[in-house]
Design goal:
Low-confidence stretches: 1-5, 143-147
Helix content: 25-40%
Largest sheet: 7 strands, mixed
Radius of gyration: 24 Å
Structural class: alpha+beta
Strand content: 25-35%
Length: about 240
């Protein structure tokens, strides 16, 4: 069986090997006021899936630093794979999480204001995790030593599998949240929860937050605005006098 990259292909393998939906998927994003932070993506599964795995579920980035490489943990026959992406600015976040093989993107858009800056966070899926997608992904998995055929499994079996795979997204944002479609709020974290059969390309997790500027920044901005206004008025008057 050749190495399959991507969350959808890995889920198909799990389904074929174990017929068991005992797997959990989660992501976590933390962003500071300066735009630095960390994004993590992890998959947890039981020993039945572990015993049938040929390597890892997640693709490791061999060019990444040690802190950004996949880490594996095990406890009481439960297994966890996790990778983290550190970013030093919002532009860096948008670049690193614009597209990936697991089928989602994350971005934060900043809109500058005089007294406050407004930020819009969004995580959107680029793939649909449905019955037809599970079936079609199997076509890219078979090799000279293929796993079991997917044909014995009915649509009901496949839907039961993906409806038991839970995905949770937890996000910690700075400033004040003014709007979100999160299903939960722990006070410091926003939480979105889905089962895979409910995820499609229209699935979007969003939040808008604002960061108030301190008084010195506001005063400086006001002074600069006044200066530019005075310069503009003076230049207009100067041009009129020359005519």
């Amino acid at each position: 069986m050749k190495k399959v990259n991507g969350l959808l292909g890995c889920l198909t393998i799990i389904f074929l090997l174990s017929g068991c939906g005992n797997i959990g998927i989660a992501s976590n994003t933390t962003i500071s006021e300066t735009g630095t932070g960390v994004f993590s993506f992890r998959v947890a599964y039981n020993n039945i899936i572990f015993d049938n795995l040929n390597g890892s579920l997640l693709k490791d980035n061999l060019n990444a630093t040690a802190n950004d490489r996949i880490k594996k943990y095990s406890h009481n026959q439960k297994f966890l794979e996790e990778y983290k992406i550190n970013f030093n600015s919002l532009d860096d976040l948008n670049k690193k999480l614009a597209k990936n093989e697991n089928g989602f993107k994350v971005n934060v858009i900043k809109k500058k204001g005089l007294f406050k800056d407004t930020y819009t966070y969004e995580m959107r899926f680029l793939k649909t995790f449905g019955i037809s997608e599970i079936k079609s992904s199997f076509l890219g998995i078979s090799d000279t030593n293929p796993v079991r055929s997917i044909s014995p499994y009915s649509d009901t079996d496949i839907n039961k599998f993906i409806s038991n795979v839970k995905y949770t997204n937890v996000v910690s944002l700075p400033g004040r949240i003014i709007s979100t479609n999160a299903v939960g709020d722990t006070g410091s974290n926003l939480v979105w929860t889905y089962y895979l059969n409910k995820i499609n390309t229209e699935t979007s997790m969003t939040a808008t937050y604002i960061i108030e500027k301190n008084s010195s920044a506001i005063v400086a901005a006001a002074v600069i605005t006044i200066l530019f206004t005075l310069i503009f008025i003076y230049s207009l008057r100067y041009k009129r006098r020359k005519r």
